[in-house]
Every structure is written in C-alpha cells, then in structure tokens.
Amino acid sequence: MRARELTAEAPRGLSQQDFDAADAARTTAHARVRQATAQLEAAQAGLLAARALESQSTANLRDASLQLTYTNIIAPTDGYVGKKTVETGQRLVPGQPLLTVVEADVWVVANFRETQLRHVKVGDAVDLDIDAVPDTPFHGHVDSFAPATGAQFALLPPDNATGNFTKVVQRVPVKIRFDGLKDPDYRIRPGLSVTATLAPQGKSR
Hints:
The chain has three domains: 2-69; 75-104, no CATH class; 105-159 and 166-198, Elongation Factor Tu (Ef-tu), domain 3. The strands form two sheets. The chain has a five-stranded antiparallel sheet, with no helix packed on it. It has helices spanning 2-8, 16-69, and strands spanning 79-84, 99-103, 107-113, 125-130, 138-145, 171-178, 194-198. The protein has 205 residues and is of the alpha+beta class.
C-alpha cells in the first residue's frame, strides 16, 4: 500500500517499474506462504497418519507375539514321554491330547485291606519288593491315604441302599514314597508289580 501511495505522489516518490516489481514480489511471497502453509498441513496430516500406522503396527506386533506364545505347549510337569499321539505336520485342535508324560518321581500305590490299616499312620515304614528288580530290596514310608476306598472310584460304585447288602472287605489305596531311591538305569517305572509289606507297628523311617 505504501508503494502504491508513493507512485501517486507528485513528484513521484516511486516509479511504476519499481512498484510493479515490489507488487510482484509481494504476490510471490504470498504464494510461497500459501504453499508453505499447505505443505505444513500436509506434513501434519502425514504425521497423524504415521502415528495411526505406528499404533496399528504396535497392536499387530502384540497380537503376533501373543499368537507366537500359543505355539509353545508346556507340559505341566517334568518327566519322560510315554506315548505320542501326533506326528510332525499334523494340525491340532484345542483340547487334543498330544502325548503322555510320565513323571520321573515314582511312588507306589498299595491297595491294603481296611482291616490292615487299623494302626497304620503317615510316616510308617514299608518294605517293597519289585518283581522287575527282584535282587534289590527297597524301602519306603506311608505318604498319604486315599480319601475313599477303591470301590468308590469305580465306574459303577456299589449301592448298598437296596437292602441286599453283603459285607466285603474294602481296599484302601495308600501312597508310598521311596526312601533314598537310586535308579540310574531307570528300571523302576509306573505300572510295575510291587509287594508292599508294612513294617512292625511303631517303626518308621
């Protein structure tokens, strides 16, 4: 505006040529400002899009990491694989049994008659004879008693409420743990036949 006023003064304080040059420079400067503003808005929009993409990528990474953990199947206990029911490349479904794990820590479950347990308590000594290892004596102790007789855990437990009751001596599962078991060749395995003999009353290990 000042340049325009100078061109209108008499005598002229600014020539028409100088005014045109200044006006062209002003127009160019305004155009550059508009261009810079547009670039700034585009950059801000790109920044918002990049942040949104970063958030989406982070969410995808967390989901992929979670899915990766699902590929690791962890056994509930240490031990040996006793039976494998899947093969390499086979597809699995949730809940499908894959293999049977046998614990390295073995124990004996002896089914004593209820009349034999009158004075037996936890900690009492037990002598063990294993058919698979006949030349080695083993010793253990009573660890715990089952909460019910073996008949109560059967598929069809007996029902004595019909009136046709016949008294039968029941068997009580007793868990026996080995004392100082040394089995480097892994000869003692679950399912073997064992004869358990209760030690004299009052003897414990």
